[in-house]
Amino acid sequence: EDQVTQSPEALRLQEGESSSLNCSYTVSGLRGLFWYRQDPGKGPEFLFTLYSAGEEKEKERLKATLTKKESFLHITAPKPEDSATYLCAVNWGAGGTSYGKLTFGQGTILTVHP
Amino acid sequence: DSGVTQTPKHLITATGQRVTLRCSPRSGDLSVYWYQQSLDQGLQFLIQYYNGEERAKGNILERFSAQQFPDLHSELNLSSLELGDSALYFCASSGSFGYNEQFFGPGTRLTVL
Fold first, then answer.
1. Do B56 and A101 touch (CB under 8 A)?
2. What would the DSSP string read from start to end of A4-32?
3. What is the pLDDT of residues B30-51, one digit of tens each?
4. Which superfamily, per CATH, for A4-113?
5. What pLDDT does residue B99 have?
6. A43, A87 Cβ separation under 8 angstroms
7. Which residue of B has its CA nearest to A99?
8. Which residues of chain A have pLDDT under 50?
């Protein structure tokens, strides 16, 4: 079963057109939710960590929020350089053999047209 | 630049062969993680080492093994390679036991012919 689901799969925006990406999770014992940005052929670049429902983090045009079932990545007035794949990942479980394991969603491919 | 380095950048080999991928974590980080990224499976966790000891394991194949050395660099060994092993392999590191953000390296692209 899918434990981390991201939507939409792809999103095309005009420059300046704000929108949100969604990450829903069905895991129990959430220890942290992470957002990454990935450019083609490169390693994921860390953006945010959220630990508890109600928490919000901001960085430039990006804002991440967390509820008990999902997280949103809001993009305000995006620019073409924001085009990338945005990945959501969760660290969850009761310890034991899953300490550092991140479970990733399939990502949202964002394209921002000038 | 995350501070995590991986070598080689690209690797092309034949089925049945064995390869070794190398990773150096960020200065001061004790945890090293290995992930595999393929088009159909996305990013999949393979294994974590913390200060030289295995700490978490994902669906890593028996043909794959890893270790972390006293200087904290890590190697991922892939043997009896199959066409389906072709993928991007990423190493990540973090300063903690595993509950905080991980910083990824640039990856090694493995092509098995």
1. yes
2. EEEE-SEEEEETT--EEEEEEE--SSEEE
3. 999 999 999 888 899 999 999 9
4. Immunoglobulins (2.60.40.10)
5. 73
6. no
7. B98
8. none
